[in-house]
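Lab manual, section 2.4: Encoding a predicted structure.

Procedure: take the sequence of the chain (150 residues), apply the prediction step described in section 2.3, and record the output as structure tokens. A sample record is shown.
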Amino acid sequence: MVQEGTKAPSFTLPDSTGKKYRLEDFKGKTVILYFYPKDDTPGCTKEACDFRDNHSQFSKKGVEILGVSPDDEISHQKFAKKYRLPFTLLADKEAKVSKEYGVYKEKSMYGKTYMGIERTTFVINPEGKINKIYPKVKVDGHIEEILKIF
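Recorded output:
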């Protein structure tokens, strides 16, 4: 996994409309890059809605929010529309970026193991370095924890 204080791995990923975003597009801004397992599931929906409900507080501080999951553009489109998400969702369909950031891991549920996203948030500073990593995120209270550093 990448470490705090190191340069954030570069990436290029499409959003829900197919527009490509690169991390370098946000140079000069603070970026919250949050990885989540799946669109429209209970924990992921609560996390996205918490970011939505606090979006104006982040915007006032010049912070960009980017959500990343292995879902495709169409799934992201439906998810963003259903919950009126005011920030960008990026499709990491092959989990390439998730692997680079070290959040694509073996997980288990109901006694079965599988590979998937471990909910993790990265705060990337305007110079492209990772200021803070929140691994194994518990959704309740997560946004408040992030807001404390701004």
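Check your result against the sample. The beta strands are 12-14, 20-22, 30-35, 63-69, 88-91, 104-109, 112-117, 120-124, 130-134.
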